[in-house]
Amino acid sequence: MLRIAILFVVGAIFSTALAEIVRPCSFRNYRCIADNLRANSRCNRNVKGFLPPKYEVPEFRFETAYFNSSYVDRNLIVKNHHKCFVSEFFLNPETNTAVLTIDCPNLELESDRVLIQHRSKREDSFFFYRFHAVYPLIRITVNLRGHMDLCRAHVYTEVCQLPHFNIKPQDKRTQNFLSRDLTPLMIFEREQFYYAGDRLAKVFIDYFICDYGCNRRILPHYNESITNEI
Fold first, then answer.
1. Which of 18, 112, 131, 172 reaches 20 to 30 Å from 76, CA-CA?
2. Structural domains of the chain in order of their starting residue, each with its CATH number
């Protein structure tokens, strides 16, 4: 049964159309949000409370099934992650669910990227380029059900607007391979952030709201590297 912490702010919002939905906290009150999550999970409310404006992840991998490709970001630089903020938080006692949405404006990513293309009965092909992009808005929604284990929770990421980006091929072969057709770019971004959004959400929640220890389970090197400001 969903437990709601006794930290209701004055004027807490209740939905008239969906009376089972309760918003017990101001979106800016991370302590209140943490108390509600802690009441239904084992997360630790003693969080760092900050992220550096710029940090580096040694390696990040993701898959794009639509393009039959794998990607490896080496020395991935992440900027403005610390500017993310909670834009929605509500509890539904009827379904035993908490929903938390995080907005990340002007998220900036930069890396030396390896593209690995897969084909049936063929050897993989490798391409190398420098990647830099600024995303006007990334919106991440986490559904926490039952015991509210963030590390097992599904994370949905919406790329609200296509990024401003620059790509610099590292060799002639890569330059000839990369497409100039940007029509499928949104498909690529959705597939990339299926992986990236999951990490961004769990890092943000562990550092600002309530520490579930997800980063130590998912990316063993993350806690160490994330504190290394560039």
1. 172
2. 13-226 (3.15.10)
